[in-house]
Design goal:
Elements lengths: L26 H6 L4 E6 L2 E3 L7 H8 L3 H15 L4 E11 L28 H13 L4 E6 L8 H16 L3 E5 L5 H10 L3 E3 L18 H13 L3 E3 L2 E3 L5 H12 L7 E6 L19 H14 L4 E4 L8 H9 L4 E4 L2 E2 L2 E2 L3 H11 L2 E2 L10 H5 L3 E4 L2 E4 L3
Parallel strand pairs: 3-4, 3-11, 3-14, 4-5, 5-6, 6-7, 8-9, 9-10, 10-11
Antiparallel strand pairs: 1-2, 1-15, 12-13, 15-16
Length: 394
């Protein structure tokens, strides 16, 4: 039954005769299809894309009984995404160690005595070879990280990075970078080179942040996110659990993300991987992060930012396959794969292939938008628009 309005998306959805219809890959183009949408309802659960969340509302969702939180998050996930499709990203450290920041969790800071030794920036061809191997292993987004506070006046290094972006993009992979703070002009040049997304995490709440980092302000991070967004690059921004924060800080981080002018295209949720020699790694009073902490954070993010990709990131190696499945059920639909995330261990490609086969997942292709949700194709989800209430059909 269709009630009111006309199906606005029918001409913009990409259809392949061998697979489900796909939405546009560009997040801005994709979101523009839903400008008149107010909410979606499936069964007893209603969700919407909002930017006016209050901390109290988010805290109420975060504090739901676990079974109820998981039910709501899983239902919202099925309203907005195909749960069988999971994005696979590979992260490569192209410049390791030697960072002047004092992030108390980071092994790459010059202020901490850790196992990490500074290395020069990798050569362009070395990076492109790593990208080729990642693509062969099934990865569709290749992320490059450099241990810098900011790009600043590193003109020669920046030119090499632009070449890397062009080269990886030319392989048919989506390209992401995390290079510290960016100004508006640098963001524009990265966009012109073919950058898909830029990662710049907020780490934690504004209140807890000064206890973790003192060499870069919260506003500095928000400024970089604004420069990236204004350049038309997709924003990847999330945080880390296990920094000595309280649950109110986890809610505070989610509140900042959910009230940005545009929700991030992707939100990575990391579990701290403690490294000996860092202040947090040597602090025995900080509680570890378990699967329920991760699932609760992922589920809340899924509910309040339903069109955002939620990425299961650092710390995944410490969780069993069953625990990872719980996090996917909570709404995660992206992972980092490959044997290392910057300087810490991560499941290898073969292990992730086996996990995907076990769980029935398929990888999201590069430069193709997400599959239209099965609930939308079947008309089971009721979509309320400014024109009235209707059920959408593919």
């Amino acid at each position: 039954m269709t009630r009111g309005g006309v199906h606005r998306m029918s001409t913009a959805v990409l259809v392949d005769k061998w697979e489900s219809p796909r939405l546009p890959n560009d997040v801005h183009e994709r979101n523009s299809l839903y400008e008149e949408e107010e909410s979606r309802t499936l069964g007893s659960v209603t969700a919407s894309v909002r930017h006016n969340w209050t901390k109290e509302e988010i805290a109420q969702i975060y504090g739901l009984p676990f079974y109820e939180l998981m039910y709501r998050a899983s239902t919202v996930h099925r309203m907005y995404w195909d749960p069988s499709e999971v994005q696979q990203c590979t992260l490569l450290s192209i410049k390791t160690g030697g960072c002047t920041e004092d992030c108390s969790y980071c092994s790459q800071s010059t202020r901490h005595k850790t196992f990490v030794k500074p290395t020069p920036t990798m050569k362009v061809q070395e990076v492109l070879e790593a990208a080729r191997k990642a693509k062969e292993a099934g990865s569709t987004r290749f992320c490059m990280g450099a241990a810098w506070r900011e790009l600043g006046n590193k003109k020669n290094a920046f030119n090499h990075i632009l070449d890397m972006v062009r080269g990886v993009n030319g392989m048919g992979l989506e390209v992401c970078c995390t290079l510290g703070m960016l100004n508006a002009e640098q963001a524009k040049q990265l966009k012109e080179a073919g950058l898909t997304a830029y990662n710049h995490n907020l780490d934690t709440s504004p209140e807890h942040y000064p206890k973790v980092i003192t060499t870069r302000s919260y506003e500095d991070r928000l400024d970089t996110i604004a420069n990236v967004r204004d350049a038309g690059i997709s924003v990847c921004c999330g945080g880390i659990l296990g920094l000595g924060e309280q649950e109110t800080d986890r809610v505070g981080l989610l509140h900042v993300l959910a009230t940005l002018p545009e929700h991030p295209e992707s939100v990575p949720i990391n579990a701290l991987v403690s490294v000996e020699g860092t202040p947090l790694g040597d602090d025995g009073d900080i509680d570890g992060v378990d699967v329920f902490d991760m699932a609760r954070m992922i589920a809340t993010a899924r509910i309040i930012m339903p069109r955002t990709m939620v990425r299961l990131s650092a710390g995944r190696l410490s969780f069993s396959d069953a625990e990872q499945f719980l996090m996917f059920q909570a709404g995660a639909n992206s992972i980092f794969n490959g044997e290392k995330l910057l300087t810490t261990a991560n499941p290898e490609f073969d292990a992730d292939t086996q996990l995907f086969n076990k769980l029935g997942f398929s990888g999201k292709p590069a430069h193709k938008g997400p599959q239209m949700p099965q609930t939308e194709q079947s008309g089971d989800v009721i979509i309320t628009t400014t024109e009235g209430s209707k059920q959408q059909y593919a």
